[in-house]
Specification:
This protein is of the alpha+beta class. It has helices at 3-7, 10-40, 46-67, 72-96, 112-120, 149-159, 180-198, and strands at 100-107, 125-132, 135-145, 164-170. It has a four-stranded antiparallel sheet, covered by helices on one side.
């Protein structure tokens, strides 16, 4: 088939162009969603690269819209592509599971078992005493990779199903390696002192 005849045909204008616009919008909105997530997580070198290709694809889509203003199907394809691209971008970001999360656990139980379980599973923790609305509570702070978040939440729930915990994104992380042995020894000393004071 002659390409010029295909481009000038009604099928090209009513079917192929809307499909192109739809797919282009899926691609550029998906990249836009990922770019925004990169910016929020501090990936300052990846975000501009994604943004470059995002704008090029958007220009291709909007050019077809401006050249075919009388075809209302193009507008539907444009909007549908935007919605689908947003969903796809969020889905891809969830699968990538990039960055770190801060998990703060508040419990009335002795947190020693929780801390030991988290640390033996490879997660660094910090525990402090705190005062809640109804008395003394224990707070345990943990920084984990997002892909490991579900595992940490399961550990918390198994330790104390009634524990309160909050989860937040971590934009910047400066890791300091602390010796685990000293940390455990210090916890045991504090535990012994608190037991003696209680007697």
């Amino acid at each position: 088939m002659d390409l010029s005849l295909l481009i000038g045909s009604e099928f090209f204008g009513l079917v192929l162009i809307p499909i192109f616009i739809f797919l282009a919008r899926i691609l550029d909105v998906t990249m836009a969603t990922i770019r925004i997530i990169f910016v929020s997580k501090g990936f300052k070198y990846l975000a501009p690269i994604v943004g470059f290709f995002e704008v090029i694809v958007w220009l291709l889509a909007i050019t077809q819209i401006m050249q075919n203003l009388t075809n209302f199907v193009n507008y539907i394809a444009y909007g549908a592509g935007f919605a689908a691209g947003t969903f796809l971008g969020i889905y891809i970001e969830g699968k990538l599971a990039m960055g770190h999360m801060s998990v703060v656990t508040v419990t009335k139980k002795d947190p020693t078992g929780l801390i030991e379980k988290l640390e033996t599973s490879g997660y660094r923790t910090t525990g402090i005493d705190a005062k809640g609305e109804k008395g003394r509570v224990e707070m345990v702070f943990t920084i984990v990779k997002r892909k490991n978040l579900r595992s940490v939440v399961n550990i918390i729930k198994n330790f104390d199903p009634r524990a309160f915990y909050s989860i937040e994104d971590v934009k910047y992380l400066h890791e300091i390696h602390l010796p685990h042995a000293k940390h455990h020894a210090r916890r045991r000393v504090f535990s012994l002192l608190s037991k003696r004071k209680g007697k």
